[in-house]
Structure formats: structure tokens, C-alpha cells
Amino acid sequence: MPIQGRCNCGAISITINNDDVFKNNTFCHCLSCRKQSGGAGTIVVPLEDEDIVMKGEPKVWVDDDTTTGFPMGRWYSGGCGWYVTLSLKCGMTESSPSSSPVMIIKMGLFEVLPKPSMGQFVKRRQDWETELSGAEQVDGLFVPEGA
Ligand SMILES: [Zn+2]
Ligand SMILES: [Zn+2]
């Protein structure tokens, strides 16, 4: 079932048509996500371009000081400053390079959030946070099959 979301000012909206992608729905505890969100982390899902329809013209800044060490484009609404997606400028890992850019959607955009199927960078979880029940726990970056 397609889901739609928009940033706070409405300048950017995203529709995801292929709900199969939510199997890779991930709660990320990395420091980059915490700084970007102002929270304890973010829920993210990696997508191919054809899986989403984005309306609006997001702005971008390139973050070259990420937890993974790979530069990322961080795309945000020029109206409200809300971050809508990330894009990897290069492979997700050195051992598993991806030739095509992967979009990573910030799931906070959507009113209903599918439960994350995994947590990543769980070593960076705070002492007071509890493990998400039933979710796979990954110490570092989760790399989906085929990436
Ligand atoms: Zn906005
Ligand atoms: Zn993160």
C-alpha cells in the first residue's frame, strides 16, 4: 500500500509506492542521525529512485564527516529545514560498493511508521534506551542484500 508524507511546511512531499521496501526499515542510532534529527536517532529506509515520487525541490549539503566515513548528501526542505532524505555519494561499504546512488528516506516524514525490522549502530544507543523487541540488532551500518 502506498504511503505519503510531507515536511512541516509542505514544500516537499514523498510517496512510496512499493511497500515491500519497508522490510529494510531501520532505526539508526548513529551520531549523524542524532545530530540531524535532534532526537535519539532516526528511522530510515533505503530506496531505489523508482520506489519513490518526490514533489518539491529539496536543498542539499554534503556531509563529509559521517559516522560511516562516506560522504553523504543530506537533502532538506528550504522552507522548514526538515531533512527528508540522504543519498550516498559512493558505495555503502568499501567491500560492497554500490554503483547507483541509494536514497535513504527519513521516515519521520510519514504519519504512520512501519515498525523497524532492525536497529543499526546499536552500540551508540544510550544507556536509558531499550532494544526494539523483535528487531535485528546490527553494531554498525546495515547493508541490504544486493547493495
Ligand atoms: Zn518544509
Ligand atoms: Zn544514522
TrEMBL record:
Which superkingdom? Answer: Eukaryota
Against Pfam families, the record matches this protein to: GFA (PF04828)
The record's listing under InterPro entries reads: CENP-V/GFA, Mss4-like_sf
> Signal peptide position in this chain?
none
The GO terms describing molecular function are:
carbon-sulfur lyase activity; metal ion binding
Tell me which UniProt keywords the record has, alphabetically.
Lyase, Metal-binding, Zinc
Q: The CENP-V/GFA domain covers which part of the protein?
A: 3-129
Gene3D superfamilies named among the record's database cross-references? glutathione-dependent formaldehyde- activating enzyme (gfa)
Record-linked PANTHER family: CENP-V_GFA DOMAIN-CONTAINING PROTEIN-RELATED, GFA DOMAIN-CONTAINING PROTEIN
Into which family does the record put it? Belongs to the Gfa family.
This chain belongs to which protein, by name?
Answer: CENP-V/GFA domain-containing protein
Protein source organism: Extremus antarcticus
